[in-house]
UniProtKB/TrEMBL annotation:
<feature type="binding site">
    <location>
        <begin position="309"/>
        <end position="311"/>
    </location>
    <ligand>
        <name>substrate</name>
    </ligand>
</feature>
<feature type="binding site">
    <location>
        <position position="201"/>
    </location>
    <ligand>
        <name>Mg(2+)</name>
    </ligand>
</feature>
<keyword id="KW-0460">Magnesium</keyword>
<dbReference type="GO" id="GO:0005829">
    <property type="term" value="C:cytosol"/>
</dbReference>
<dbReference type="InterPro" id="IPR013650">
    <property type="entry name" value="ATP-grasp_succ-CoA_synth-type"/>
</dbReference>
<dbReference type="GO" id="GO:0042709">
    <property type="term" value="C:succinate-CoA ligase complex"/>
</dbReference>
<dbReference type="GO" id="GO:0004775">
    <property type="term" value="F:succinate-CoA ligase (ADP-forming) activity"/>
</dbReference>
<dbReference type="Pfam" id="PF08442">
    <property type="entry name" value="ATP-grasp_2"/>
</dbReference>
<dbReference type="InterPro" id="IPR016102">
    <property type="entry name" value="Succinyl-CoA_synth-like"/>
</dbReference>
<dbReference type="InterPro" id="IPR005811">
    <property type="entry name" value="SUCC_ACL_C"/>
</dbReference>
<feature type="binding site">
    <location>
        <begin position="52"/>
        <end position="54"/>
    </location>
    <ligand>
        <name>ATP</name>
    </ligand>
</feature>
<dbReference type="GO" id="GO:0006099">
    <property type="term" value="P:tricarboxylic acid cycle"/>
</dbReference>
<dbReference type="InterPro" id="IPR013815">
    <property type="entry name" value="ATP_grasp_subdomain_1"/>
</dbReference>
<dbReference type="GO" id="GO:0000287">
    <property type="term" value="F:magnesium ion binding"/>
</dbReference>
<dbReference type="GO" id="GO:0005524">
    <property type="term" value="F:ATP binding"/>
</dbReference>
<feature type="binding site">
    <location>
        <position position="187"/>
    </location>
    <ligand>
        <name>Mg(2+)</name>
    </ligand>
</feature>
<feature type="binding site">
    <location>
        <position position="99"/>
    </location>
    <ligand>
        <name>ATP</name>
    </ligand>
</feature>
Amino acid sequence: MDLYEHEARELFADHGIAVPEAEVVSLAKEAGPAAERLGGRVVVKAQVKTGGRGKAGGVKFAADAAAAQLTARQILGMDIKGHTVRKVMLARPVDIEAEYYVSFVLDRAAGAFLAIASAEGGMEIEEVAATRPEAVARILVDPAEGVTPAKAAEIAEAAGLPAATAPVIQALYQVLVREDAVLVEVNPLVRTTDGLIIALDGKITLDDNARFRQARWGDTETDPGDDPLEVAAAAKGLNYVKLDGGVGVIGNGAGLVMSTLDVVAGCGAEPANFLDIGGGASAQVMADGLSVILSDPDVKSVFVNVFGGITACDAVAEGIVQALESVQLTKPLVVRLDGNSAARGREILEDRAHPLVQQVTTMDGAARQAAVLANAG
Ligand SMILES: Nc1ncnc2c1ncn2[C@@H]1O[C@H](COP(=O)(O)OP(=O)(O)OP(=O)(O)O)[C@@H](O)[C@H]1O
Ligand SMILES: [Mg+2]
């Protein structure tokens, strides 16, 4: 799960990293009083889970409370790379002398964490990394040793950051480890004109597998995005992503679904979605999945591609039959069952003899059929 900047800011503060005083509002009329409390002059910052907010006009200075309200009104509702701005953070401005970049990321290949740091932080960091990679230091951190004061000093020195950043680098690593993050990034980490080191912007990605032991996020919604079908699917706990085509796809296992998308595309049709119903594939999950896919007006046909493993095909077939009781099928459904108990599963569907359901025994053949139906529909 990615955190919003204001959530990252809170975690930084919890771990002793200096951050600017700030407030979050979702209505423009709340921005004025909030700015007043912060001293009048503020930076108004769009809270969206994507980068490049500044360049998109989502980070603006306001000279006083009245200006803050107007600026908040401009930024709220703005679209930044497909993300609608629903909240803005108002932050007390600081006088910047230098902007740095510091991050820690899990490096799976190395089996370690990677510290990335640069003395040329700020909004052009991607440009710096692309054109002058030598300006960006990369140092592996052995997770068994962690970031000691000596290691933090080494990272700061390699990147050309002042020694005063070392304690912040160490604290940032604590955020990574203690909060179960796979990425923490501060850009910019600044040195103010009076010599303070302050984190002005933060990005944190938490490890979803560790969520059970991070109680504070227990009831935080994972951001389902703006697509109403994705919101509905997320509410049902489905692993669903909306795509642009006309063939609805349901499969068991992310790998199988990914290859199903490829095969459908190879048959001259575009998939309408990714939907992995996982290992269980109960009747309820099948019904939930079908109802989400069928409510997508772009869907012209549905391809259910199941390879029976621990969940046998007869259980999946029963699931489809039961789903047909609760979901009104409005589009043709092509089913391919293979693997464990495939023969029994096919029999169950044949006995049900639904006029809109047809079975094809191979993945290629079924994809072709679903593509033909979608292109005709
Ligand atoms: N509290 C602040 N005081 C002074 N300047 C600020 C403050 N917050 C941000 N800025 C300035 O605005 C720039 C952009 O802010 P920020 O890094 O938060 O947005 P961004 O980098 O465009 O967003 P993202 O990191 O999502 O791409 C910073 O590099 C900094 O120069
Ligand atoms: Mg930034």
